[in-house]
Specification:
This protein is mainly α. 42% of the residues lie in helices and 0% in strands. The chain has three helices and no strands.
C-alpha cells in the first residue's frame, strides 16, 4: 500500500484532473472539495472506485455518512486510518 503522503498526493492529483482550474500544488488538504465545486456529486462514484484501488479493499457505500468527501484530510481519515480499539 502507498504511504500517507502518496495517497494524499494521488487524491489531490485526481481532484485536479476533474477540475482543471486548480493544480494539485494549489490544493490543500483542507480545501472543501464539493463546497468549492472542485468535484461534483457525479464524481463521487469515480472517487469511491479510486479509494477502493488505493485501499485494496471495497467500500461499503451503505455505511457512508454525509461529509466523508469534504476534503482530502477527511477522506484520508475516513478511509485510510484504521480504528484502534
Amino acid at each position: 500500500m502507498k504511504t500517507e503522503a502518496e495517497i494524499r498526493q494521488t487524491l489531490r492529483e485526481w481532484v485536479s484532473q476533474k477540475n482543471s482550474t486548480m493544480a494539485p500544488t494549489d490544493l490543500s488538504d483542507t480545501t472543501p472539495l464539493i463546497e468549492q465545486r472542485l468535484i461534483s456529486s457525479l464524481h463521487i462514484l469515480e472517487l469511491i472506485l479510486l479509494l477502493e484501488q488505493l485501499r485494496q479493499r471495497p467500500i461499503d457505500v451503505a455505511q457512508l455518512k454525509p461529509g466523508v468527501f469534504r476534503d482530502v484530510n477527511t477522506i484520508y481519515q475516513q478511509f485510510f486510518v484504521e480504528d484502534v480499539p
